[in-house]
Amino acid sequence: QVQLVESGGGLVQPGGSLRLSCAASGITFEIYDMQWYRQATGKQRELVARITSSGSTNYANSVEGRFTISRDNAKNTVDLQMSSLKPEDTAVYYCNAEYSKNKRQYNYWGQGTQVTVSS
Predict the structure, then answer these.
(1) C-alpha angle with apex 72: 33 to 58, nearest 5 degrees?
(2) Which uninterrupted H or E stretch holds 96?
(3) Residue of 32, 5, 31, 33 whose CA lies nearest to 20
(4) Cα–Cα distance between 26 and 45 in angstroms, integer?
(5) Is 56 exposed, middle or buried (0-12, 13-18, 19+ CB in 10 A)?
(6) Tens of pLDDT along 69-113?
(7) Distance between CA atoms of residues 89 and 23, nearest Å
(8) Residue 71 and residue 49: Cα distance in Å, rounded?
(9) What is the mean pLDDT of the chain?
(10) Share of the chain above pLDDT 90, in %
(11) Cα–Cα distance, 29 to 66 (Å, whole number)
(12) Cα–Cα–Cα angle for 46, 107, 71, nearest 5°?
């Protein structure tokens, strides 16, 4: 059974930092591209950061330079280091694992972790 379990969310003041972690099980972690998405109240879910199986990264414009995604294939984890947080970063953050081969797609989601940026 595939599980993605996020942790590290919470309440932080503007300008502060948080580190989210996602622990994966039930998949061959190293072949999956891993993403962090977020969804604010009343808004659509959006891609925040991606790290491919080969280690390439990309970020949403809104978080570029403030957030860093990393993975540890030995521990089956993907982290999101968030710095200089703003109130508009407030959202539920979701971990996502994605893999496709021979026209078959595998896509899994975690349950989400709340991040609230407020003074």
Answers:
(1) 45
(2) strand 91-101
(3) 5
(4) 25
(5) exposed
(6) 999 999 999 999 999 999 999 999 999 999 998 899 999 999 999
(7) 22
(8) 12
(9) 97
(10) 97
(11) 26
(12) 75
